[in-house]
């Protein structure tokens, strides 16, 4: 009997059942896929790191190196298990051709290496050690996914005086430098080719790599290393950071997928609550009869629960099954970059638990709604036939007092006002839809706006010339500065030097701190708090540095300058998402022994000459990176902006889908609920189009209100949310740059179009209903 | 007197669950003259209400045609039919069918505002007059939950009359009322008819029929007999005589 009742009920409410099914199904697919993705990600990273024997700590160093000294230090240090020094030949992007064009415009620092000997192995796509023969090359997977390179393709190295072509024989999974976020990439060549190139390439960089006996001693080891006299001209990175960087991109995607799944599930639960209350309203008399003939509330509850349990169970199982097909889409990137770890029970179990959670939530909430059955009195139910649950507010607006508004519109306002409780769900979903369209759009426009420069720790200039570390960097810098000073086309310029200093930490030892020094007034920076350093005793810290050091304005920090500890007062805190967000600015002289890079910023007199001036500097000071503001933003943020664009599209698709489903669901329910009212209106002379106008206006009024609230939330909570995400990159105080047309015109218009079309589509069914039959019932 | 409403070979069939169509109305021919008060009687399931809804254009007949004031209703679009219902027809039902979301006055003025025959202020004035006429002027600011069944039926009558319709259709208008309220409603209907509005009412109640001018008797979807009672004059003592006459006739019809 139960099965036939369920079947009948589901057939009677086909579209409502279908909508609920879709919501739960999608929530389940996404939840299972997100959970699987996390399992896959953590296991794959673990697998890759184990197979590659990833180093526990790495000091990158550009410049001369005394290997014997380092080996001695490592032997004397009881924490160190193995030491390995990897020599890398740094290649200028303009000299490497992966396709027709060189890698000149690339932000990646490219180097040639050979396979490591003891650990930090470079693996191929089968997760085996890469072996490269003479004339062959193994290219990082980043380039495979970026350019679609295949085995057998050619890679050319051409300095003008020396040229060599290599055939791709493998692709490299590099535990250290895999992700796109890491701007260093290692190409593996044979010992013979490496030997040849050592005579051609002068630029060397070394990776001083350590594996420890006990990984938990990493912090102690780091302090010991940084306080040693060993070479440290470059960043110091460790195992946890490699893991974090490898997991970050896909981890965020998995988190977003799970978040969307939770939102969908929440909506599904609210929809179920709504349909349950409506069904109870419809069946109130029947429920009364059931009670009157002696059925207990728990028996009736079971009857009603069974429908939603069956629905949720089917949708959840279908979602779980579908996730096996879908999750491959999400894990393609993981599979390419990290390989697939052997399948474990966790791969099946974690998603199953996640799905069970979805199912459990639905059952629990359904049960909570059904507790209302206990309160229904049999006599009252049979007599009144109404629960009054989804009833109307007693507050009625007077139509007769209105002088001009059209009657269908008046009825819509009246209805919306009186049944506010009923429309909460619709309002909530519309507001979420507006939020998930507007926040990504605003974020995208913010990142795309030139004012985003204020989050990158630099001032606004026409041209920026970056000189990275080379052996003759000082001479080239002096030459550059001289040229700029004498150049009549240049209106103003500022030279800034970034060098590394030692900063005292709480533990009585020192950490490294990159400090940009020079003239900070020509192209002033926007400060989050405070101002730029004005005296030699002041320093400004980036947001990340200030929060990590726990320092605020007025506090002081101790830096080792010219071998002596000196105290500096923090004059300002600024936002900077570049260089891991860990920078500082000051007026004192640079640390000449440890210079990381030079930047010369300049404004030109004639902006029409901008391109030719850039070209001139590019040619004269190659391989200096010469960029204008847009170019710099594009190079630094290009990838992120592209991803954001995708997020905008995904946001729009989800919002359209959500609004469409919820509008369809609501209209069906509303039309069913209001059959008698619609019949009355039609009997007294309302045309079908009058009725349509009433319901459409009602929907659009709710949407309008929701869009307004959604927009306000986007610009407040949304902005704060983006700020929270960006804080981990160094900019916590993001202010949206809003394109009013996109945020306030096109986005709402899109939702209005979707809701209008869906509502009108649903309203088509009222033509089929017979007035006389509805009146007679 | 001219004919206001005419049905020629009007038929209606319904199909349930894909079975053979079942005829509800069978080639009904009917003429109602301007200012006439006609009642339709017959056993349950004889097709009385179906006739009312089909002849008023509320439902679409499956055969035959209906002419209202010279217009062929069966050929009109849904929109034209709505317009006609709004401006020229009034309806009252057994279950009063007022809009719960509106108070009493709003229920009455609603179709007046829709029809736009006169300014809204005037519609309100007319509503007040109608309420006064049917004896519910004290309810003007009340909610529908504050009125009795009889009072609500009067509200429905006011709503039906707000646009001064040419014809008033009633489907068992006294069916859910006690005898006192029922008599009051009948007096109101009679008064409306006296003022020139044509009335067609479907009823089980011989008291309603006794006050009408002509009684049609339906069996199995066809009008099988009709009785001319002539105009009823209020206050005269002829009512019991008319009821007796009707009773005898109905008995002869096997009712």
UniProtKB/TrEMBL annotation, chain A:
Transmembrane segments: 252-272, 308-330, 350-370, 425-444, 646-672, 693-717, 743-764
Assigned keywords, A-Z: Cell membrane, Membrane, Transmembrane, Transmembrane helix
Location of the ABC3 transporter permease C-terminal domain: 259-366, 650-770
Pfam families recorded: FtsX
InterPro entries named among the record's database cross-references: ABC3_permease_C, Membrane_comp_ABC_pdt
Residues annotated as signal peptide: none
GO cellular component, one term: plasma membrane
Membrane topology: Multi-pass membrane protein
Compartments in which it is found: Cell membrane
Cited PANTHER family: BLL1001 PROTEIN, MEMBRANE COMPONENT OF PREDICTED ABC SUPERFAMILY METABOLITE UPTAKE TRANSPORTER
Protein name per UniProt: ABC transporter permease
Source organism of the structure: Paenibacillus montaniterrae
UniProtKB/TrEMBL annotation, chain B:
Protein name: ABC transporter ATP-binding protein
Protein's UniProt keywords contain DNA repair: no
Organism name: Paenibacillus montaniterrae
Family per similarity comment: Belongs to the ABC transporter superfamily.
SUPFAM superfamilies: P-loop containing nucleoside triphosphate hydrolases (SSF52540)
UniProt-listed SMART domains: AAA
CDD domains: ABC_MJ0796_LolCDE_FtsE (cd03255)
Source organism superkingdom: Bacteria
Domain called ABC transporter: residue spans: 5-245
GO annotation, cellular component aspect: membrane protein complex
Keywords: ATP-binding, Nucleotide-binding, Transport
Stored PANTHER family: ALPHA-D-RIBOSE 1-METHYLPHOSPHONATE 5-TRIPHOSPHATE SYNTHASE SUBUNIT PHNL, LIPOPROTEIN-RELEASING SYSTEM ATP-BINDING PROTEIN LOLD
Keyword Metal-binding: no
Any Pfam family hit: ABC_tran
MF terms (GO), sorted A to Z: ATP binding; ATP hydrolysis activity; transmembrane transporter activity
């Amino acid at each position: 009997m139960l099965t036939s009742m369920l079947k009948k009920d589901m057939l009677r409410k086909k579209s409502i059942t279908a909508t609920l099914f879709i919501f739960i199904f999608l929530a389940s697919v996404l939840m299972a896929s997100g959970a699987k993705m996390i399992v896959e990600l953590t296991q794959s990273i673990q697998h890759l790191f184990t197979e590659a024997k990833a180093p526990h700590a790495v000091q990158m160093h550009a410049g001369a190196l005394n290997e014997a000294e380092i080996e001695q230090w490592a032997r004397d240090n009881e924490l160190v298990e193995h030491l390995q020094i990897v020599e890398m030949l740094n290649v200028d992007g303009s000299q490497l051709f992966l396709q027709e064009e060189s890698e000149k415009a690339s932000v990646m620092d490219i180097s040639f290496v050979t396979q490591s000997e003891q650990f930090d192995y470079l693996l191929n796509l089968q997760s085996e050690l890469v072996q490269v023969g003479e004339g062959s090359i193994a290219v990082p997977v980043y380039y495979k996914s970026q350019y679609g390179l295949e085995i057998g393709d050619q890679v050319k190295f051409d300095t003008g005086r020396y040229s060599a072509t290599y055939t791709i024989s493998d692709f490299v999974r590099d535990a250290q430098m895999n992700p796109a976020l890491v701007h260093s990439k290692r190409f593996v060549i044979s010992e013979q080719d490496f030997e040849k190139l050592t005579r051609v390439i002068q630029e060397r960089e070394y990776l001083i790599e350590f594996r420890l006996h006990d990984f938990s001693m990493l912090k102690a080891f780091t302090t010991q290393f940084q306080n040693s006299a060993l070479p440290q001209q470059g960043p110091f990175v460790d195992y946890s950071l490699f893991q974090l960087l490898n997991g970050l991109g896909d981890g965020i995607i998995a988190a977003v997928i799970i978040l969307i799944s939770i939102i969908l599930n929440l909506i599904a639960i609210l929809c179920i609550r709504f349909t349950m209350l409506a069904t109870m309203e419809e069946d109130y008399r029947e429920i009364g009869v059931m009670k009157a003939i002696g059925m207990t509330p728990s028996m009736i509850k079971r009857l009603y629960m069974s429908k939603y349990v069956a629905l949720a169970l089917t949708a959840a199982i279908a979602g779980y099954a579908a996730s096996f097909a879908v999750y491959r889409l999400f894990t393609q990137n993981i599979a390419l970059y990290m390989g697939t770890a052997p399948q474990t029970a966790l791969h099946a179990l974690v998603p199953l638990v996640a799905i069970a959670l979805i199912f459990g939530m639905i059952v629990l909430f359904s049960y909570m709604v059904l507790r209302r059955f206990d309160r229904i009195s049999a006599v009252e139910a049979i007599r009144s036939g109404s629960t009054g649950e989804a009833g109307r507010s007693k507050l009625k607006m007077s139509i007769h007092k209105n002088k001009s508004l059209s009657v269908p519109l008046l009825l819509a306002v009246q209805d919306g006002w009186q049944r506010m409780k009923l429309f909460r769900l619709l309002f909530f979903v519309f507001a979420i839809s507006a939020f998930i369209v507007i926040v990504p759009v605003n974020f995208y426009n913010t990142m795309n706006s030139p004012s985003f420069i204020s989050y990158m720790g630099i001032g606004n200039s026409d041209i920026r010339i970056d000189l990275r570390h080379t052996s003759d960097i000082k001479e080239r810098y002096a030459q550059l500065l001289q040229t700029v000073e004498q150049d009549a086309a240049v209106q103003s310029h500022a030279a800034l030097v970034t060098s590394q200093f030692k900063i005292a930490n709480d533990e009585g030892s020192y950490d490294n701190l990159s400090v940009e020094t020079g003239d900070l007034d020509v192209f002033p920076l926007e400060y989050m708090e405070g101002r730029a350093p004005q005296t030699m005793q002041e320093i400004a810290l980036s947001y990340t540095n200030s929060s990590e050091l726990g320092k605020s304005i007025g506090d002081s920090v101790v830096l080792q300058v010219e071998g002596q500890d000196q105290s500096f007062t923090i004059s300002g805190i600024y936002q900077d998402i570049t260089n891991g967000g860990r920078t500082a600015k000051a007026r004192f002289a640079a640390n000449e022994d440890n210079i990381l890079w030079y930047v010369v910023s300049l404004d030109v007199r004639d902006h029409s000459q901008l391109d030719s001036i850039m070209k001139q500097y590019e040619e004269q000071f190659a391989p200096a990176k010469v960029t204008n503001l847009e170019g710099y933003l594009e190079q630094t943020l290009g990838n992120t902006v592209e991803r954001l664009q995708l997020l905008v599209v995904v946001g729009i698709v989800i919002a359209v889908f959500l609004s469409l489903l919820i509008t369809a669901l609501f209209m069906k329910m509303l039309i069913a609920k209001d059959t008698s009212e619609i019949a009355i209106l039609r009997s007294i002379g309302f045309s079908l189009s009058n009725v349509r106008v009433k319901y459409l206006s009602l929907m659009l009024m709710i949407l309008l209100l929701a869009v307004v609230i959604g927009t306000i939330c986007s610009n407040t909570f949304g902005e704060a949310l983006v700020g929270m995400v960006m804080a981990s990159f160094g900019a916590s105080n993001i202010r949206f740059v809003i394109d009013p047309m996109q945020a306030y015109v096109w986005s709402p218009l899109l939702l209005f179009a979707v809701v209008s079309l869906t509502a009108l589509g649903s309203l088509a069914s009222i033509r089929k209903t017979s007035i006389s039959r509805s009146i007679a019932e | 007197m001219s004919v206001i409403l005419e049905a020629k070979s009007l038929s209606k069939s319904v199909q349930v669950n894909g079975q053979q169509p079942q005829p509800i109305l069978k080639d009904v021919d009917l003429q109602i003259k301007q200012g006439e008060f006609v009642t339709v009687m017959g056993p349950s399931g004889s097709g009385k209400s179906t006739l009312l809804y089909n002849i008023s254009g509320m439902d679409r007949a499956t055969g035959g045609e209906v002419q209202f004031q010279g217009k062929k209703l069966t050929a009109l679009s849904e929109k034209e039919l709505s317009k006609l219902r709004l401006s020229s027809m009034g309806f009252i039902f057994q279950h009063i069918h007022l809009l719960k979301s509106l108070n009493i006055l709003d229920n009455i003025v609603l179709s007046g505002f829709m029809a736009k025959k006169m300014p809204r202020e005037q519609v309100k004035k007319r509503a007040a007059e109608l309420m006064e006429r049917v004896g519910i002027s004290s309810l003007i600011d009340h909610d529908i939950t504050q009125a009795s069944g009889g009072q609500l039926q009067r509200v429905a009558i006011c709503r039906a009359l707000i646009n001064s319709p040419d014809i008033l259709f009633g489907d068992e208008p006294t069916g859910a009322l006690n005898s006192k309220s029922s008599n009051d409603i009948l007096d109101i209907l009679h008064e409306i008819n006296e003022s020139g509005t044509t009335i067609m009412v479907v009823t089980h109640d011989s008291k309603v029929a006794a006050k009408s001018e002509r009684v049609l008797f339906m069996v199995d979807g066809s009008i099988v007999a009709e009785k001319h009672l002539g105009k009823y004059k209020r206050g005269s003592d002829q009512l019991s005589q008319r009821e007796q006459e009707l009773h005898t006739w109905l008995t002869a019809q096997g009712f």
